[in-house]
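User: quick one, sequence for these tokens?
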């Protein structure tokens, strides 16, 4: 009897919720179903093509796909990123890895990379553009807020706790307006 009550409650909340969250349906507000449905289009933003499913599967293992594709790199850059993800524990077979590399290289090439204004960039943009951890991107924002705009790459490298080598490696795409 209790099970049928829960099922009825679940179906009254949201027709999508039962499939997504089978336990404790009485505790799920109806708007969560809407939130979950709105989160799904993130996958739809990827262009169709061979390797799309592998990108969705592999790149979402640890973080949101938007973070993955925001890098925009050449093939060697994508290979280096994937090698790094594999060392951090990404589970993937060789076939999937090759499909992801081909897909990302074709759909998110380095030639499309816009320059990044370090004085207006948000933390997520700094993180992606400079391949920095979130903590270091936050340090840049804090430093900029406290000390004012950066005038040069030298100023940016002075931020305590930030990997200057990563900044140097991406200097060609940085602007200081």
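Assistant:
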């Amino acid at each position: 009897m209790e099970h049928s009550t829960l099922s009825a409650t679940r179906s009254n909340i949201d027709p999508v919720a039962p499939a997504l969250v089978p336990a404790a349906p009485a505790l799920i507000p109806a708007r969560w179903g809407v939130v979950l449905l709105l989160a799904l289009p993130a996958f739809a933003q990827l262009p169709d093509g061979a390797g799309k499913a592998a990108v969705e599967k592999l790149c979402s293992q640890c973080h949101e796909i938007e973070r993955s594709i925001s890098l925009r790199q050449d093939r060697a850059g994508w290979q280096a990123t994937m090698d790094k993800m594999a060392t951090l524990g990404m589970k993937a077979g060789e076939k999937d890895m090759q499909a992801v590399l081909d897909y990302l290289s074709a759909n998110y090439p380095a030639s499309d990379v816009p320059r990044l204004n370090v004085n207006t960039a948000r933390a997520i943009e700094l993180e992606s553009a400079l391949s920095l951890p979130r903590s270091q991107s936050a340090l840049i924002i804090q430093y900029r807020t406290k000390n004012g705009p950066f005038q040069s790459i030298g100023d940016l490298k002075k931020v305590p706790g930030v990997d200057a080598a990563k900044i140097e490696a991406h200097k060609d795409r940085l602007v200081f307006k």
